[in-house]
Each structure stands twice: as C-alpha cells, then as structure tokens.
Description:
The protein has 9 helices and 3 strands, in the order H-H-H-H-H-H-H-E-E-E-H-H. By secondary structure, it is mainly α. The chain folds into 2 domains: 88 residues, DNA polymerase, domain 1, CATH 1.10.150; 134 residues, Intergrase catalytic core (hpI Integrase, Chain A, Orthogonal Bundle). Strand 1 and strand 2 form a beta hairpin.
Amino acid sequence: MGKLSAKMRQLMEMRNFSSHTISSYLLQVKLLIKYVNQPPENITEDHIIEYLYYMRSNKKSTSSTIHVAYCAIKYFYLSVLGKNLNFNRIPFPKKEKKLPIVLAPEEIKSIIDNIDNLKHKSIVMTAYSSGLRLSEIRYLKLTDIDSKRMQIHVRSGKGKKDRFSLLAPSLLKQLRIYYKTCKPQSWLFPGKEDNNPICSMSIQRMFKNAKKKPKSLNQPAFIPCATVLPPTCWNPALT
C-alpha cells in the first residue's frame, strides 16, 4: 500500500484537495484493506458493500463518515488503481439532514463573557462575529485584517476559494487590544512558536471549554465548533 498511498496523495495534491481530505481518504482506504485482509487489486464490489455495512452496523459510523469512506474508496479504485469496479452496485449513503444549533445573541455574549484568556476570547469572537471556519481562523494573518474597509480577507477557504467576511467594530477593538498585548508577528493567532499557526486541536479544546453551558442558558452542555450563526456574519451581539 506504500507506493499506492504515495500515488494517491500525489494525484490528490495535483487536483488541489485539502490536506484534511487527503488524510481522510488515505485512512478510509487503509481501513478497508485492513478489514477485507486482501490485496487492493483483489477487492470486489461485494467486499466494499460488506465493509460499508460493517461501518454502519458494527462501528455505528455516522452517515457522513460512511459517505467519506465511499468517496475515498471510489477515488482510489477509479483514479489510483485504475480498476473499473461497478460502483452503481454499491449503495451510496445518504447524508443525514439535521437542523443546526443557532445561538441567540445574548447566548453568544454570555459564552464570550465567560472567557478570561485574551487570545482565546479573540479567537472565539472572530469565529462568531465573522462566521469563519476553524481552518480559516488558523491561517489568518495580520495583513488579512482590513480596518479601512472593515473586512477580513479569508484565503483558501472551503473549496480553496478566497472570500471576504465582515469585520465588526467590536471585533476590531478586541483584536487591537489582543495585538498590543500579545504582539503576534505574522500569523494573527500563532501557535507555541511564532512562525507556525495555532493548531486545530488547540482551537477545538478552546471551543469546547467556551461552549460549556452557562447556568443561565437553555442550551446543550456542549455545542459543536460548527455552530451556525444567525443569517449574517455581522452578529448583533458583538457590535
């Protein structure tokens, strides 16, 4: 699998897949081969159906995870191995459609007010105020904050697309306080070393701690990092 993994990574990088997608696809293919315990070229449609059913019934994987596994396996066999398996025979898992958790402005304000760490508060405010994804927050640079146009330049967001997000006055004020105190050099939110951005796990832990249920709120004890904001990036709780 070593040479095939390298080939798959190379092809996906050439197609500009994100590093997260590449890692996920490689993992799913390795798990399939480990489960079937056969060389990749000997695996059939029936093996794949059996494995996807195993994910659903035994591992209790979510529809989203099974969907990723299906896409990864299909890409591997059609684009990497060049084996013309009939994927029309393999049931394509439907994604679950769940209503998002939407926080009220006062609930967002309560969460932010409970954060004492200046850097953590600035990161959470940036996420909620501008509607940025975790990966987009990680790679923000000082030069991406445009105080004249009141915009945040998001580079290589989802789908490798650049976009602009609104910069609320209260967020700009918070970021200026953070900048004067912490003095970041290049990355807006650096990791332990200034020349590297903050790692994803650090932000996830930060959100987990920040979103613990305040006693005054009628919200779940933990809200996922991808919590959806009201239908505007300019959050009224943060202006």
